[in-house]
Structure formats: structure tokens, C-alpha cells
Amino acid sequence: MTLLATMLLGLRLGGRITASSAALLVATAGSSPYIESFTLSGELLSSVPMILSLLAFCAYLRSGRAPWLVLAGLLTGCALMIRQSAFDAGLAAIALLVVRERRRAWRPVGVLLAGAAVPIAAGAASAARVGEWWYAVVAYRGHGDSLFTGSPIYRFHLMTATLPAAGKALAPLAVLAVLGWWRAPLLLRLWLGAAVVGVLAGGNFHAHYYIQLVPPLAILGGFAVDGLLAARRQIAWGACAATAVVALAFAAPLWFASGVAQAEAIWPGDPHLQSDAAVSSYVKRHTLPHQQIYVVWAAADVYYLADRPPSFPYLWYRNVQAIPGALASAQRMLAARRPIVVVAAQTPSSIDPSLTTMRILRREYRPVAAVDGVPIYRRLPHPVNDIPGPVVP
Predict the structure, then answer these.
(1) DSSP 3-state assignment of 258?
(2) What angle do CA 220, 226, 227 make, to 5 degrees?
(3) What sign for the dihedral angle of Cα 155, 138, 82, 78?
(4) What's the Cα-to-Cα distance from 144 to each of 80, 201, 228, 313, 358, rounded to whole Å?
(5) In the chain, where the domains are located
């Protein structure tokens, strides 16, 4: 859907050559495993309404009809509700309106923002507590998951750590996009600039963040091919094919690697992904389907692969680390012995340096296995309290 939407937008902005080239670039460079394009990330999901919002905005620019502007705003709001960094299409549209209309821009900008506010307001209205909704959707990111929190050196380290992976996927595409920069309309250049801001604002620089750059880069690359085609036909398709071939060349060795080797190449900073299949298999063999388990502190795929319910609502490392009271709640849950099995995907002290979690595990659980180096604990039997019936003090 992202590829087709990108192709339609390329057709609207530049024509058939631009559209077909952009589609080829999305299907190759944009689909590189090194930016985790095979995972169902928020960046990938939000790209569909994001691109469609620009299509609607282009229809407004051609016709001047307000309903297209409302639709562009609605789709922008939908993209924001999927992924909060997906403001790039709306920001590019607003910037273009300000550049073109200047003082008269307040009216179309207001219509666009009003449309975007509808899905956001619907989300807030559906929440049981608006304050908690606001924290989960917006304020939570400010506790450690944005460019503006934490050490700048740490953020720079995160960025440089993922740049090699992003380069394997997008470096040739970026070079081609540079060639099409001045041929492309201003809206497209503003869109790429806003997409870069969206990637930077995320702060953590996971590889899948860079998927947000793929559609604008691909259409810019399509403009480069269209321009080269006007000058030298063979160079045009050669440049496009070379960009695709380079991306495929980086990905091809992974086709023949084992699952563990693929995980090691794509997620070198997440070693638990190399052992999660074996850990999940062990957990599935040694628990019953209805029994709850807990992963300290994060490996959500273990719950899925083992098909066992989690005993705690927060499945992500940053949830436990950043949400006020989450760590204490996790400790109470373990002390209450709710999970029958605890998987130590990360060391308990990585979030809890006080060692309280470790003391609870030693008191209420016993180590039963170490699968690929991952410790697994099982709940100690308490015969009296485990008998159904009245609770014995």
C-alpha cells in the first residue's frame, strides 16, 4: 500500500517516469531489511495515510476546493494517531501554504488543522481518562524518548550506531535524490525536510525510523531519473537500476543465512532476538496455555511465540523504565507470584540497580534453565497458598 500510494503521488507530482521509478526504488532500497521494513512498525503503518494526505492536498492545490483540504487534514490526523512522528506531510503542507499564501494562509491552514484535530479529538474522547491518554500518546515521549531529553552525546551515539544500517539501505537512494532535488516541486522538498525532523524527533534512532524517509526520497529519485532521461536515456535507467542493485546486494547474503544470523546482522544491539525462538520453545513446553509468564524486562515476541499471556501490561523496556510507578508495580506483581515462569531477557539490575527485583526472584522463584544463556526462573511451590479455597494468612 505504501508503494502504490508513493507511485500515485509520484504520478501526480511528476508523471509516469517519476512514478514508476519511485515504485522501483520503494520496492528495493525502501524495502531493505536493514531498516526493518519487514516488520509492522508504526512508521510503516502511518506512511499510508501520510502519503494519501499529500495526494488530497495536491488535489486541493489543483482545484482550490476546501473538501480536499479537510480530507488532507483528516488523513494527517490519522497518521499522527498511528505514529506521533508522522507529522511530516501535514507540516510540509502547512509550510507550502505559508510560502504561497503568506498572510492569507491562516484560513487554509486553519481548515487543515481542524481536519487533523478530528481523529485526535476522537481518540481523546474515547479514553477513560483524558489525562492518562495525553500522557500515553504525547507526554510519555518526553520522559526519555525524544531528541530533547537525556544526554546529547548519548543521542548522537544512538544515531551513529544506526547510520551504517541506514546507509546500506538508503545511501544510494539519497545520492539519486540529490540529483532530483532542484527538479522536484517545493512541496516534495519540504516533505523530505519535515520527514528528517520526524526521524530526529524520535530520539532513539531505531533502524525502522528511517522508513519515514523512504517515500520522499523515492519520489525525489524518480525526478532524478526523469531528468536524466531527458538528457541521456541510458544513464537514467542505469542510475535507477544501480540504486536498486546496491540495495539488493547488501540484502542478498541475508537470504541464505539462518534466522539467528539474520537477527545478529539486523539487530546487533538486541542480542535477545537471537535466542527468543529457543527460549519461547522452552517456555511453551514447560507451561500450560492459560499460565501467565513475565519477561524481564522486554522481549514481547516471547509471549507471541510461546503463545502465553503476559502477567504485566507493559511489554517494552522503556515502559518499565520511564512510566512513573511501573517498576514498583512490576515488583509487586512478581512478589505476588503471578507469573509461573520469569524469563530474564535482560539483567534485572539494568532497570533496577537497587537489586530489589533480584531479591524477589531469589525469594519466590528458582532458576530452572539457561536457554542460549538466558536465565529462566520458575515459581517456587507454596503448597498452602496454592490450594484453591480461602486464603490462609
Answers:
(1) coil
(2) 90
(3) negative
(4) 20, 12, 45, 20, 25
(5) 2-255, 271-380
Is the distance from CB of 258 to CB of 278 less than 8 angstroms?
Answer: no
Strand partners, 371: 374
| Residue (of 211, 197, 158, 173) closest to 34 by Cα position | 211
Which of 347, 333, 345 shows the shortest CA–CA distance to 300? 345
What is the β-pairing status of strands 341-344 and 374-379?
antiparallel
pLDDT in tens, the chain (393 residues): 999 999 999 999 999 999 999 999 999 999 999 999 988 899 999 999 999 999 999 999 999 899 999 999 999 999 999 998 899 999 999 999 999 988 888 999 999 999 999 999 999 999 999 988 888 887 777 666 666 666 678 778 888 888 888 898 899 899 889 988 999 999 999 999 999 999 988 778 888 999 999 999 999 999 998 888 877 766 777 778 888 888 889 989 898 888 888 888 888 878 888 888 999 999 999 999 999 999 999 889 999 999 999 999 998 888 898 888 899 999 999 999 999 999 999 999 999 999 999 999 999 999 999 998 899 999 998 754 444 434 333
Secondary structure string (H, E, C) spanning 281-317:
HHHHHCCCCCCCEEEECCCHHHHHHHCCCECCCCCCH
Instruction: At 163, list the grid cell.
Output: 547510520
CA distance 346 to 340: 18
Q: How far apart are CA 184 and CA 178, in angstroms?
A: 10
Instruction: Give the span between the Cα atoms of 71 and 60, in whole angstroms.
Output: 9
Sign of the Cα torsion 49, 52, 54, 60 reads negative
Which segments of the chain does DSSP mark as H helices, in order?
2-13, 16-27, 42-63, 66-82, 88-101, 106-126, 130-137, 152-179, 186-202, 214-231, 233-255, 259-266, 276-285, 300-306, 317-322, 326-335, 356-364, 383-386
Contact 292, 308 (CB under 8 A): yes
Q: Which of 179, 225, 210, 159 lies closest to 25, judged by CA?
A: 225
Q: What's the grid cell of residue 182?
A: 532542484
Give the chain's radius of gyration (CA, Å). 25
pTM across the whole model: 0.85
Q: How far is CA 287 from CA 90, 100, 284, 372, 378, in A?
A: 48, 64, 6, 19, 10
DSSP 227-250: HHHHH-HHHHHHHHHHHHHHHHHH
